[in-house]
Every structure is written in C-alpha cells, then in structure tokens.
Amino acid sequence: MTPKPMTSVEAVYLPAIFKGFGTTMRHFFTSFGQGRTSYTMQYPEERREHLDVEKGGIETSNFRGVHRLNKDAAGRVKCVACMMCPTICPANCIHIEAAESPWDDREKYPAKFEIDELRCIFCGMCEEACPVDAIELTPLYDVVGRSRAEMVFDKTKLLSIYDLTIDQKPM
Q1: In angstroms, rounded to a whole number, what is the distance separating the alpha carbons of residues 99 and 62?
Q2: Of 3, 113, 122, 165, which is most buried, counting CB atoms within 10 Å of its CB?
Q3: Beta bridge partners of 114
C-alpha cells in the first residue's frame, strides 16, 4: 500500500502550522478565561509551600523532599538497622552498616547510614517499609551540593535535618 502523494500546499506544511497555532490559541484563551495565566512556577521568588490550591496552585500533601533520620525520646537514632529500607529501595541508594547496640532496648543500630540523594527517586517506599518510623521524607527540597560527595547524606547530616525540620508540620 502506497500513500497518496502530497499536494503543493501540503508540502509546505502551512495547513499543519495553522492547525497547531489554532490549538495553541484555544488553550491560551481557555486558561486565561479561568484566571490562570501560567502553569510555570517562578522559583525562587515563588516557593512551592506558598502556593494555594484554591488559586490554581499545587497540592502539597503528597510532596516528598529530602530524608531525615528521626530520634527517639532519649535523643538517640530511632533506626534499629533492620535493613528493610535498603532492601525495598528501587534506586538502591540507601546503605546501612549495622553494629551491636550499646543500649538494652534493641539488638542493633546503624553504625553507618548513608543515602545518596542524587540517586534517590523520592518514591517514599523506605518511609513506608520502616517498622519503627525512623526514616521520613521532609518538605525540605532546596538542598544543594557542590560535588556528588556532598549529596551523599550520612547519619550525622540526616540527624541534623531532623533538628531543622522537627518544628515543621508534616506534608
């Protein structure tokens, strides 16, 4: 089966260009009529948490930012090194080295706990898999690093994020 040859008008693609321009204008006037002029967020002047859903903003209740390690009531790391989070992580970005716990209330604790934030896909499966709610995703999203090594968060950095975000409401 051979396609029919294009006419000279079709060969210069003018009908297709006008059809596409008509679609663009239709979308422009429908979104403008609804009071919405842009879907683009002007970051850093406009931040995600300041958006209002009623005014066409983004729902932030399911937002997932960087990780933190939670502390228990005694100020110790809550993690019991059960290895559930590195097992379930689809990006394989969590690395834990367990050690025998110096405390009587648990068998193990993480001697080394690292998350590669550049490799992470922020799916939240580690948070769901944790039986003691030790790992949590925060609303903090504007973390930068000058090298790849700075974006591998170790246990002390993850605990410091806990100190920064403990007063913020969970998303």
Answers
A1: 34
A2: 113
A3: 95
The CATH code of the domain at 67-165 is 3.30.70.3270
Residues 140, 144, 147, 148, CA torsion sign: positive
Q: What digits encode the pLDDT tens for the residues 62-120?
A: 678 899 999 999 999 999 999 999 999 999 999 999 999 999 999 999 999 999 999 99
How many Cβ atoms from other residues are within 10 Å of residue 157's Cβ?
19
Residue 75 is classified by DSSP as S
Smallest CA-to-CA distance from 95 within 79, 83, 107 is with 83
- The average pLDDT across 3-24 equals 87
Positive or negative: CA dihedral 86, 91, 92, 93:
negative
Q: What angle do CA 64, 54, 24 make, to 5 degrees?
A: 90
Say how far apart CA 119 and CA 163 lie, in whole Å: 24
Q: Is the pTM of this model over 0.70?
A: no
Three-class SS state of 97:
strand
Task: Tell me the C-alpha distance between 32 and 8, whole Å.
Answer: 37
